[in-house]
Design goal:
This protein has 585 residues and is α+β, with helices and mostly antiparallel strands. It has 23 helices and twelve strands. The strands form four sheets. Strands 2, 6, 7, 8, 9 and 10 form a six-stranded antiparallel beta sheet that branches. Strands 1-3 form a two-stranded antiparallel sheet. The longest helix has 22 residues, at 307-328. The radius of gyration is 24 Å and the shape is globular. The structure holds 2-acetamido-2-deoxy-beta-D-glucopyranose (5 copies). This is Selenoprotein O.
Length: 585
């Protein structure tokens, strides 16, 4: 039994990790000013979270007029070459990073399905009331260009499902420009679903309501879970028919087009470098690397002859970190191709993702992924695969010695990942300090969860909420996930070990432990059935459930009455079991 447990911990550990320190800090700073009118949170819970943002919004300095809002493409256009060929037709593109491409306006009437106040005000310095204007509908769906905008489609390549796929590129996304906000941050605005580009291949350049609702909700949910991610400002839906074969089974249906306005500090991917290396554009590869380092890795000295090596080491570390954080919340990305992996190690490209419900290291969110290449337990290894491809792309700019060093750095990935996972899961269990049996304690628990098919999110959450007395008495009334777990024949053994481990923590109390654990173990994640229910309504122009979910998932660590009423922390409904993930997007 013990060896099985250890092996299992390592299976998961080999596939997940994260910095607990960062998570803890983040969670305590969660700022739901997106929903400052939230009075549904129970008092005892909300007092745990100082509902205070890091910056105080200065309402008078928010822009009320979209015409004052300016983006800029200058920096990118001055530093990086643009496609010499003009026109929005599909082609092979060489010797550039971007192609100019004008968005194709969505056919109206347009409707604002959702907007994120936290992004609109906190990042874009816009008063949230502007999202209700007609202008906003057009700007945020590609019908009009923001002042200063030169819309661009990015040229990249990538390894898809294990093989080099050649040129890919933004096939339905348009970069609009950079916005420098009051806090001194620079964000890149991008539309997704805004029409064809030179990189559209056989695609129609559109995104449907279904996949857009999922991207909007999940990227915001991930942010508030403390996981690095792109953000979403708005979701606009149209009446434009878009044909999709949702399950790749020949059943084509007309759906409706939608556009998400999304933001990231940078949209460059591993595939952005790969395409340059693969096509022998080494000067351009160096140019892009220098640009990325200058803009996004300010701690790397541009004159340092080892700068590409330090860059690589940073990406290796942060990727290990990111995947560990995915594991900590049971997130499976679903398509971890090198073109879906950010150089800044943030979560991007929300497609057939899923949050694991019953604990299962083989959980596969994309129901068409029969081989389980991108199962949740495979993510750490896929991360390594993608970093190997990054290293291959960097070889032309590394000396022989540096190439050897880079290989050694890559060998360190597994350790970094395991260390992060270890830290994270210790925090999830409220463990302080270090004990040689901690790995076994974690592995033992996960093995029991797997055997009993306990819910990943709620098992950890209920362990955070359960009182010392309830634990001692094994009283799990109203704790459905813990109750499932407690049916394991070795549960008592584990619990005794756990309680003994906790009892040896000096200067700790059960209340402190609960407090710490509730700040890292969310009560609400975007379960597939929750998204599906909101999507069905959104397709009938009822956006109330999108709004509700957006609101609730902005404070995932706080118990909220409306969420409890909606059953978001309850055992998933029967119909959820039969649900398939909507794959084509
Ligand atoms: C808010 O912003 C306005 C305009 O930028 C400025 O004049 C004012 O002093 C600011 N107020 C606070 C409290 O920062
Ligand atoms: C990556 O992590 C390793 C192990 O923690 C550390 O030694 C190394 O300095 C880190 N690299 C960078 C560039 O931060
Ligand atoms: C991720 O990459 C695949 C190809 O590897 C691409 O088809 C897809 O559009 C990307 N996913 C998303 C959600 O953008
Ligand atoms: C799901 O997996 C299948 C099989 O690997 C793949 O062809 C398909 O592109 C995946 N779906 C998405 C949206 O990535
Ligand atoms: C079990 O815990 C619940 C609180 O969740 C409490 O109301 C109940 O009295 C406890 N039952 C026993 C037998 O201690």
């Amino acid at each position: 039994m013990w060896s099985t447990c250890t092996a299992l911990v390592f299976a998961l550990v080999a596939a997940s990790s994260f910095t607990s320190v960062y998570v803890l800090e983040f969670c305590q700073n969660i700022s739901p000013e997106c929903h400052s009118d939230d009075n549904t949170a129970s008092n005892s819970q909300s007092s745990l979270h100082t509902v205070k943002s890091k910056w105080t919004l200065n309402a008078s300095s928010l822009m009320h007029d979209l015409n004052q809002f300016r983006v800029s493409c200058k920096k990118l256009l001055e530093a990086l070459p643009i496609d010499k060929v003009d026109g929005n037709f599909v082609r092979t593109v060489k010797n550039c990073i971007f192609s100019k491409s004008i968005p194709t306006p969505l056919k109206g009437p347009l409707r604002l399905a959702a907007a994120c106040k936290d992004v609109i005000e906190g990042i874009l310095d816009l008063d949230a009331s502007v999202t209700r204007s007609g202008d906003f509908l057009h700007y945020a769906s590609g019908g009009r260009l923001l002042p200063g905008s030169v819309p661009l489609a990015h040229r990249y390549g990538g390894h898809q499902f294990g093989y080099w796929a050649g040129q890919l590129g933004d096939g339905r996304a348009h970069f609009l420009g950079q916005y420098s906000n009051k806090k001194g941050e620079v964000w890149e605005l991008q539309l997704k679903g805004s029409g064809k580009t030179p990189y559209s291949r056989s695609g129609d350049g559109r995104a449907v309501i279904r996949s857009s609702v999922r991207e909007f909700l999940c990227s915001e949910a991930m942010h508030f879970l403390g996981v690095p991610t792109s953000r979403a400002a708005s979701l606009i839906v149209s009446e434009e028919p878009v044909l999709r074969d949702q399950f790749y089974n020949g059943n084509v249906k007309a759906e409706r087009g939608a556009v998400v306005l999304r933001l990231a500090k940078s949209w460059f991917r591993i595939g952005s470098l790969e395409i340059l290396s693969q096509s022998g554009e080494i000067d351009l590869l160096r140019k892009l690397l220098n640009f990325v380092i200058d803009e996004h890795f300010p701690f790397i000295n541009p004159d340092n002859p080892e700068k590409y090596l330090v860059f690589f080491s940073t990406v290796v570390n942060e990727t290990a970190d990111l995947i560990a954080q995915w594991m900590s919340v049971g997130f499976a990305h679903g398509v971890c191709n090198t073109d879906n992996f950010s150089i800044l190690s943030i979560t991007i490209d929300y497609g057939p993702f899923g949050f694991m419900e019953s604990y299962n290291p083989n959980f596969i969110p994309n129901t068409s992924d029969d081989e389980g290449r991108y199962s949740i337990g495979a993510q750490a290894n896929i991360g390594l695969f993608n970093l190997e491809k990054l290293l291959v792309a960097l070889i032309p700019v590394l000396t022989q010695t540096q190439q050897k060093q880079a290989k050694i750095i890559l060998k360190g990935y597994a350790n970094i990942y395991q260390m992060r996972v270890h830290q994270i899961f210790k925090a999830k269990l409220g463990l302080l300090g270090e004990d040689e049996d901690d790995n076994d304690l974690i592995a033992f628990l996960l093995k029991m969860m797997e055997d009993t098919e306990s819910d990943f999110t709620m098992t950890f959450r209920e362990l955070s909420e359960v009182s010392a007395n309830q634990l001692l008495n094994r009283n799990f009334t109203q704790m459905w996930a813990l109750d499932d777990l407690s049916h394991h024949k070795h549960f008592s053994d584990w619990l005794n070990k756990y309680l003994f481990r906790l009892s040896r923590q000096q200067d700790d109390s059960h209340l402190d432990r609960q407090h710490r654990m509730k700040n890292v173990n969310p009560r609400y994640v975007l379960r597939n059935w929750m998204a599906e229910s909101a999507i069905r309504k959104a397709e009938r122009n009822d956006f109330s459930e999108v709004e509700l979910l957006h609101h609730i998932l902005s404070s995932p660590f706080v118990t909220q009455e409306t969420a409890e009423e909606a059953g978001y922390a309850a055992r998933p409904p029967q119909w959820a079991r039969r649900l398939k993930v909507s794959c084509s997007s």
